[in-house]
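Summary of Year 1 activities. Much of the first year was spent building the evaluation harness for sequence design. The harness presents a backbone, in tokenized form, and records the residue chosen at every position. We chose the following record to illustrate the format because it has been used consistently in internal testing since the harness was completed.
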């Protein structure tokens, strides 16, 4: 990491519990009136635990390490102090927020724009998968806040004329543990070298790993630690279950659960992009409104999927772990771990999609004969034995025929899709992505191929 400055180990924010009872409003935390109104309009009636701990300290100008899980309101915990400071000393290129994924970047930008709309805050999202040129133009306008993934930001720092962060006042690293797990260490290092040492830094992370501690020593000055999650904890209002099933019946049990709990919104986690796509096709063939979200989809498709789900136009979102952290999807009632997570910590993040902000929710984990050890690790990590989700096996078995037929269709569609991708690549360069409609094949065959023959 960048050369450490004279850093002490973080002091704990020891705030008396009584204060939490009394401090009910953002105004009490020291947030300025304009921003308090913006919070009201967003429906933020009272600050969350992490906000109560972090905001007053941030307003005093301290560096902060926030240990908080997703859904705890940490975006507000760093956005409000930054906007508060921006109002006092308006300046372009004022703050930089680094995030591990594109989706999270867009989400943070939405919150900045919503909170800062009345004061004319401009933000730019600088992430991969989107045209560099338009981003360079956005940077040339010198926005107040940049929200970026490390790789693409470095790209612009090196190649976009006239763009630098020498005047930066605030640096935020959100989900720092994930930024480092995704091997962005060298990029973060480079960024730390080209921004002023005289700045405020907020580091937020769900877990305190060795890498995060190393980053903290390199990037923060005498930070205060605000921890609101105990070591590995799942929310109290979350009902967690498991189902032990032979792996060949996973699809059938999934359909049974979706029928049993119909009327809820679901987030179903699969381990691979391919399985996400296959399961989405399978469920669509059975008449469920399911949409996939995974790393092989183009950026616009991912955001499209996410927005349909957010707008409740679809009730089932299938996702890989790429999508599992940091996404603020407000209304997931049930999380299904269709494929058990290989890292027990991912379980915490997956089930963190439901029972957010005080609402209750269910999480159901499928455990096959191959997953027993992984499941035991999860139980050990969260420190509780999970109960079995009650199922009527005879009713499940009645579904096998319909499911088998849908599986066959899904396989055919995937195969057709694979061939179509090959053809369209040969034909038009690879501009395809994985949620294209089946039947594009005909367009390819009827369109560009014929033109070529006619030349």
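For this record, the design step produced the sequence shown next.
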């Amino acid at each position: 990491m960048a050369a450490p400055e004279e850093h002490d180990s973080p002091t704990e924010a020891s705030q008396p519990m009584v204060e939490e009872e009394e401090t009910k409003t953002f105004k009490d935390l020291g947030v300025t009136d304009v921003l308090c109104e913006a919070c009201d309009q967003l429906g933020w009636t009272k600050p969350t635990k992490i906000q109560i701990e972090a905001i007053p300290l941030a307003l005093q100008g301290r560096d902060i390490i926030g240990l908080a899980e997703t859904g705890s309101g940490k975006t507000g915990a760093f956005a409000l102090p930054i906007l508060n400071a921006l109002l006092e000393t308006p300046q372009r290129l004022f703050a930089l927020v680094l995030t591990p994924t594109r989706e999270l970047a867009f989400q943070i930008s939405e919150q900045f724009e919503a909170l800062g709309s009345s004061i004319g805050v401009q933000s730019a999202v600088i992430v991969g998968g989107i045209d560099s040129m338009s981003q360079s133009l956005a940077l040339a306008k010198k926005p107040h806040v940049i929200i970026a993934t490390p790789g693409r930001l470095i790209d612009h720092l090196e190649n976009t004329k006239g763009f630098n962060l020498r005047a930066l006042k605030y640096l935020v690293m959100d989900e720092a543990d994930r930024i480092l797990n995704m091997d962005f260490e060298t990029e973060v290092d480079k960024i730390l070298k080209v921004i002023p040492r005289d700045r405020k830094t907020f580091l937020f992370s769900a877990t305190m790993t060795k890498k995060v501690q190393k980053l903290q020593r390199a990037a923060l000055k005498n930070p205060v630690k605000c921890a609101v999650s105990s070591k590995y904890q799942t929310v109290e209002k979350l009902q967690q279950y498991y189902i032990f099933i032979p792996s060949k019946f996973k699809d059938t049990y999934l359909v049974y659960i979706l029928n049993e709990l119909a009327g809820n919104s679901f987030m179903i986690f699969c381990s691979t992009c391919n399985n996400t796509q296959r399961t989405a096709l399978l469920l669509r063939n059975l008449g469920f409104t399911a949409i996939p979200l995974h790393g092989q989809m183009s950026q616009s498709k991912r955001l499209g999927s996410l927005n349909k789900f957010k707008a409740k136009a679809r009730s089932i979102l299938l996702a890989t772990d790429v999508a599992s952290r940091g996404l603020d999807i407000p209304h997931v009632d049930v999380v299904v771990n269709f494929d058990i997570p290989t890292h027990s910590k991912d379980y915490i993040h997956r089930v963190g999609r439901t029972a957010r902000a005080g609402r209750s929710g269910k999480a159901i984990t499928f455990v096959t004969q191959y997953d027993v050890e992984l499941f035991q690790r999860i139980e050990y990590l969260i420190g509780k034995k999970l109960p079995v989700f009650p199922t009527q096996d005879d009713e499940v078995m009645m579904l096998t025929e319909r499911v088998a037929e849908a599986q066959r269709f899904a396989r055919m569609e995937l195969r057709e899709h694979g061939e179509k991708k090959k053809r369209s690549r040969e034909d038009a360069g690879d501009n395809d992505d994985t949620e294209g409609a089946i039947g594009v094949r005909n367009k390819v065959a009827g369109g560009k191929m014929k033109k070529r023959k006619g030349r």
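The CA atoms of residues 270 and 320 lie 5 Å apart. Quantitative recovery figures across the full test set are reported in Table 2.
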